[in-house]
Each structure stands twice: as C-alpha cells, then as structure tokens.
Fold each of these.
Amino acid sequence: MPELPIIARARSHSSHVAFESPSCTQTYQHLLDESARVAAALLGHADDLNEARVALLVTPGADYVAAQWGIWRAGGIKVPICLSATEPEWEYALTDSQATVVLADAANAGKIASLCERLGVRLMDLSCISASAKSLPEIDVSRRAMILYTSGTTSKPKGVVTTHANIQAQIECLVQAWEWSASDHIPMFLPLHHVHGIINIIGCALWSGACVEAFSRFELNAILDRVRSHAYTLFMAVPTIYVKLIQALESAPETDRAAIVAGFKTMRLMVSGSAALPASVHEQWTAITGQRLLERYGMTEIGMAISNLYHGERRPGAVGAPLPGVEVRLKNEGGEIVTAEDVPGEIQVRGPGVFAAYWNRPEATAESFDDGWFRTGDMAVLERGYYRIMGRLSVDIIKSGGYKLSALEIEASLLEHPLIRECAVIGLPDDTWGEAVTAVCVLADNATLDLKTLREWCKDRLSVYKVPQRLKVVSELPRNAMGKVTKPAVKALFG
C-alpha cells in the first residue's frame, strides 16, 4: 500500500523550500525527516497508533507541520488545540477527544504541563525528541485523521472528525479552483486550529509544493514590509484584517503607501473568509489596491464548498458557486428543494470533503444530515448563479413583521454610514414585530448619532421593516478570543 498522498507529494517537492522566515528556510525534505522522527517517538515500541488521539499545541511553522505529519504517519488522529485557550478549554478538548498524548513545542509545553499531569496525559516536547527513524505503518486514506473542535451556539463544542480522504478532497478542490502551483508564496498568520489555516493555506500550499512564510500572529508592520518587497503571490485573511490593512494604508505616508499597494497589486489572488465580508470593505480594497477580493464559503464540517470564481466575477456580498466536486442545494422550511432564484433556503452540502461524524455524538451526527446532505444551518438565496448568505438560521435571520430579514445584510448597509465604524444587528423579542431589529454601533472617534437621525438615513437604503428599532452606542463591541462579535453578549447589553 502506498504512503499517504500528502507525504508522497512532499517527496516529489523534496528540494523545494516549504517554510521561509527571516532567520532560516526549511525544505520539504526537512519536513519529511522531522515528521518521521516524530512518528517514531510517538510509536515507541508500537507498530501503529491505531487512531489514538494526539493533541497538538505547537506554534505555526515547520515544527507544526512536522508534528502534524508525524501524528498521521504513526497512525494517530490529530487534535489541534488553540494556543491561547484557557485551561478549562484545553481540558475539555483533551477529555472529550480522549487524547492520550499532547505534542507541544518548547514555547507551549510548560503551559500545559500541569494539566497533562493532572489528567494523566503523556506530554511530549518536540524539542526533546531524540528517536531514530523506524519502519512506519501503512495508512489508508479511509482512516480518521483529525478531530477539529467547532463552537456550538447552544452546547459544548463538538469534535468534527475528518478522514485523510476528506482532507485530501478539501485540498484538491481548492488547488484546482484557485490554481495553486509550486511557484506560489503565501504568508500564514491565521491560527492553526481552524480550517482556514489548516486546509486553505497550509494544506493547499504544501500539496502544491509552494512556500509558506509563517507568523505567530498577525504582525502588521512585518507583513506590510514583506508585501512592499513583493514577497507573496497569494494572500488569505479574515475581513477584520482587511479593515486593519485599509486603516494602515490610509494613514501611511504617500510614498510608503504607494510601495505597499504595488506589492498587493502584483499578487495573483487575494481571498477573504471565515466571516462575511462587507461590500463596503470589498469596494474599498479594490479602490486602494486594484485587487478584487475573492470571497468563499465553508465550515469546519465541510471545508470549502462555495467560491467566487478565480477567472470570472467576484461579486461583493456573494460567496459564488459550488467548488469542483461539491454539490450544493437549498431546502426551505417546508422541506421542499428550492429550484428558483431569489427564494431563501437552508444550504445543504454533499461531496467527498464532507466530514465523517461528530466525535462520540451519533445523535448530533444524524440530526446534521438530510438523506446524505449535510445541513449547514445557514440560510442563502441564489441570485444570478451566485449564492448569497443571509445568515445563520438561529442567529442571523430575524423574523420581524412577517418578513425573514438578514442581520448580515442590515449590518452591511449600516456600515456604509460615514459615522459607523462597526456594528452588530440582532433580533430582540417585541410585542408588535415579533422580533425588533436591533443595532449596536461603534462610532468613529468623537462622532455622535441618535436613533432619529439613523432612521432618516436608512429610509433610502433599508425598507421600513429593516430600520433599526433600537440603538445602543458602545465604546467597544463584545468579542470572543478570535476578535469576533459575540451576539449573545450583544443581547446582554439590552438587559
């Protein structure tokens, strides 16, 4: 039986640089050698880990990938955990996944050592591994490869189980759609316990023989310096980062701004994901850099499913059409398949990249599928061949006055107001409307805005049913550890 395809492909690029930093470079051969050592250390006297769970707590970079490949080559299931999580969050992931080993680098081993001791979980420090190479087991792609925890809105996080075949399908569809090649060079500053970083960046790059420049976090000045030097061919980020980049470019001296913009202009592809990209940010970015951001749609359970076209229209506010090998359909609340455009329905997805199951949650797994189609819980409409996301069925769809309103659309419209810097829109119980559209806004420095003025401004932009019924101005929106607005906390502002 041949070795895992991702390892076989690395061998075909063995002399290429896989990771680059100001201090050193590491080739694909280095990743192969180091991952073999990690695999040997994990196995010890065993021949195969037989899908034992190994938690991964390693700083983004070559060591992370060597550890990931080492787990897989030894026959284990990788459980990536958040570097900045709290101890109770780590404990939940370790106990729920029944991890037997935590693989950490020197920078993080000490942080989790006491928890591992208390739980009786073996802790391995990557910097202390001295195992010599040994014969490694043959791993079929049908084996389970990863458990990735996704936050639920009503319960504890669920472990999303993907096989090696699932991961390969998720990578291959993006490599084909976005035309990855060995000549590509991309920065990596997103966390590696999410699909965006694991699959879209690291997975696609290393499948293609490309080069990754890893940062431990989003280091604005360092990244802009590299952009100025035309270091990258691709760039992938979340909307918040594009907002920060716009602010940095607008405040930069003219000559400096021109040099950085020139670096962005020469990139062949720039992608936005993990959250809805406001149309205003999309247009601002194009006006400044000339680049049309490519927005896509995916989830932990399915990888990426829908994308704007690499060659073709990149429509603000839309996530595009199904990716190669992915089937998408809409289903309305009455259980009917939506075939017409402009009619909302829940997005359901089928394809080889769709996850295998939730870890130890057979009931949740069964509830998430409809005759083999994964139920995403997201509402969308099809408009001129492209899908547009309306929001989560339980959070972003506001039922007001007999209408189903998209909180995301209202947020995008409000962000066009010159005084509104950030906002979150939710529905709150209301005797008249059923749910009142409620806006929480952060204003520009020293700005003031009252509800009457906002309603007047909304008249030509939002229908009467979408005009915010309540308004609260705060200095900072409630956010989670990823910097995203937490709508339950927004609701709490209204007591």
Amino acid sequence: MASADDKSFDDINVTPMVDLYLVLLLIFIIMTTAGVQGVKVNLPSASSKPATQKLEAPKTQAITIDPAGNLKLNTVPVTLADLESRLAAIKASTPDVPVVVRGDRSNQYQLIMDVLDVLGRVGINQIGLATQPSK
C-alpha cells in the first residue's frame, strides 16, 4: 500500500499565483491613477450674463422671377428699383447676406441679367442661381 508521502507532485496549482497577479495589478492601477494629477492654472473668469447677440447665419434672401416676368423678394412683389433699395437696406444691416436668384426656365435672360446687375450695384457677392437637377 502506498502512503501519502509517495504521492507525486507532477501538477502545479496556479490559483494562488493568479490571485497574487490580480492583487498586484489592482495595486498598480490604484497607484497609477492616484499619481496622475493635472497642472494647476488660474482660469479666467467670464461674465454670468447671457450673450446679447445671437450668433446666427445671415438669412438667405430669395429673388423669384415668375413666368410673367414679375419680381418677388422672398414673397413680396417688387420692381427693379424697389429691389435695389430693399437689398441696399438688407446689405447695410447684414453685410455678407447670401442671395438666391430663382428664375423660371421660360423667362427672358435679360430680366435675370437685370437682377444680377442690381445685385452687383448693391455690392452683394454671395449669389446663387437656383436650378433643378436633371433627371
């Protein structure tokens, strides 16, 4: 009969070694996060009042030329002279106002050129010509 002293020790129990590694890892994580500190600076102070100006993009103005040759600024019917005075007032309040020219495909090209000439005299340089994508 074999006694308990004759038992062979061929296998190694790794559970205590894994426990030791986990404890060391936990200590390393705690010490690393505790050792990281930010640099102290004197931060500037800001006003507690809300901003008075709204930071908005300028509203796009739309000039529409219908098939009959009538002009509309946004939805208000205008003449070329009225268009120039209204655009000059808008340009004075918002210097970089964008304008979109929407002309019907059956319009005479001269009327669109007259509108572009008014835009040039007023000094508006952000001009878009609205088109429809081809099918």
Amino acid sequence: MLKTSLFFNLFFLFLSFSLSAQSETSPLTLKFIGTTSSRGNIMIRIQNGEGEIIQRLSLAADASPLEVKVNLKPGSYAIAAFHDENNNKKIDKAFTGIPTEKYGFSNNVRGMFGPPELEDQLVDLSKNNKISIRLQ
C-alpha cells in the first residue's frame, strides 16, 4: 500500500510539473504575406535571442490564410522564412549569391549584404502575439 501511494504521489508531482511547464509557453501567430504562388512550402526557422535554432517548421504555400501558430517560452525570438517553391528544402540563389526565392525576416528587416543582424530581427513575445512577415 505504501509503495502504491508513493508511486501515485510521484506520478501526480511529475504531472503537475509537466502541466506547469506547458503553461509557461505563449502562442505566437506567424502570418506570411507577399507570396505569388501556391506551389511548395514556406520554410520557417525560429531562433532564440542567443541565435540558437529552436524550431524549424514547414507550412504549405497553398494554406489559406498563410499562418502558423507556435508555442514559445517568454523571451525574444528571430524568425526567418523563405518560399521554397520547388520543394528542394533550400533557398535557391543566383550565381551572384542573391536568393531567387522570396524570403523575409521578423520585423521585416533586410540585410545589406546578407541576412540582417540577429538583434534587428528579435521580437519580444511579451509584446507581440501575432506578427506578419513579408516575403520579398
């Protein structure tokens, strides 16, 4: 009886920790605008404030609307996305290195000679629960 009671106490303790960890996340809706084709997928990468990739997602380009919800812990995040029209799972580039597929970053920032700085892309989840990213 004592072993069974101990098992249930530990089980419920574990369950309460699991549920509290899940409740520490907030939903963020990512909306993508600027696509001209419904072929392929929107490939999405989410980085934390330190630049670590924490999540990669794929959204069918024919979805309507082009939105995806993600649950993230409180903090700042940078989102990068591109429209992978030919489904080769990489951003295609011209011989000059310039992307030939539409791409975008959170805060709709652009880099001068490459991707924008991470700190320019960061979105504070406590202030935003829906962001739009223009793919150009």
